[in-house]
């Protein structure tokens, strides 16, 4: 009668001694695998310190210092650039400044993303801080290298142990960092830890070169568009007749008529090789796809889009378990573009790895017979098209650009030789990023192999 029932008997003392006084059965029946041939320690016993980030208002104007948030950690690494800044004092900077090798843990988010962990590498001379829903772990490097701690928390064993400690509410999931400190971690010999560290450091170098290549493609496009020194009119007011405004566009919102948007439109219209409307130059795939029950799908959402137009990951689910917004099917060569204001720059090129994946209905899925995918991606992420998309956004609770507004945005028709040059840089950028991803995956597999087999050939 009890066949298949998960049950475990524990003493009341174990519940009382737990940092969070756990009495939920799942916490005890889902304990991770422990290899008896390996030496384990509590993570907390291997740390020099741990620290919550700063709680402060943020801005998108670059005032103050760049600040990391919970959605700016991808694939074991903290993103190179962040979107928001915090205007803080020197004393606060000294307290919350990130340093090379800091391990950053996301303590609160959706169940899927809570516990995401990345290592911060100081790749430049810019000071950055981290927000309060992140926690900084600084390991004792005599026991744990920061790359090893980061990688372990991203292995299936680390993720499993984190998730069983997560506390879920209606809209949010939390993991108490004190519980993370109670996690057991195998103390692998330093040779293996250094091997893992080398993988992460090499992946970071490849990521930097990849980003530089993508940036060079963007710069080349701007040069070809005549935008290298372009500055749009900053005036915040304009005068339009009723005929020139509402009767022509149906829009009453004043921002729609800002002079800067007229400057961007004029720039496209004066492009010497011609222009067309997005609706004429692109196929916009907005037909809903019904996932099949029992079939596993890769699901891409906004949080899976990187800064350089790449998909950084996915959630794999059976069709019946996917959220109702997972209704767009994508294919190799498609470009996905966010429709939501505030994340319009979340655009990505779909590579072979994500062929037949699903994405959120918050994306438009595009292909063009006139522009190659790499050029289309670079255009949509450019200052030019980003501003024109922002112009088209409307709404109250959720501000987004409608399909009809997207279709009437003018876009330059780039000459083929320019497209080929852009494609060359973007493809090389993606190749390097794929190599970096493989190094990171190998680091995780190394640890998992040690736990499962008790040894590894490095």
Write the layout of secondary structure elements.
Layout: H1 12-17, H2 25-29, E1 40-42, E2 47-52, E3 65-68, E4 73-74, E5 77-78, E6 84-86, H3 90-96, E7 103-106, E8 108-109, E9 117-119, E10 129-130, E11 134-139, H4 146-154, H5 156-164, E12 167-168, E13 173-174, H6 177-181, E14 184-186, H7 190-225, H8 246-249, H9 259-269, E15 275-277, H10 278-281, E16 283-285, E17 296-300, E18 315-318, E19 326-329, E20 335-338, E21 347-349, E22 358-360, E23 363-367, H11 373-380, H12 383-392, E24 393-394, E25 400-401, H13 403-407, E26 410-412, H14 416-453
Helix pairs in contact: 4-7, 7-14, 11-14
Q: Mean of residue pLDDT?
A: 91
CATH superfamily of the largest domain, called what?
DNA methylase specificity domains
Please list the strands of the largest sheet in the order they lie side by side. 2-11-7-9
Which descriptor suits the 3D outline? globular
Considering DSSP H and I runs of 4 or more, what fraction of the residues is helical? Answer: 25-40%
> What is the radius of gyration computed over CA atoms, rounded to a whole number of angstroms?
25 Å
Bin the strand percentage: 15-25%
Contiguous low-pLDDT stretches (5 residues minimum) are 1-5
Number of domains: 2
Sketch the major β-sheet. 4 strands, antiparallel
Instruction: Write the CATH fold name of the largest domain.
Output: Adenine-n6-DNA-methyltransferase TaqI, Chain A, domain 2
SS field, number of helical segments:
14
Can you tell me the CATH class of the largest domain? Alpha Beta
Structural class: alpha+beta
- Tell me which CATH architecture of the largest domain applies here: Alpha-Beta Complex
How far apart are the first and last residues' alpha carbons, in Å? 48 Å
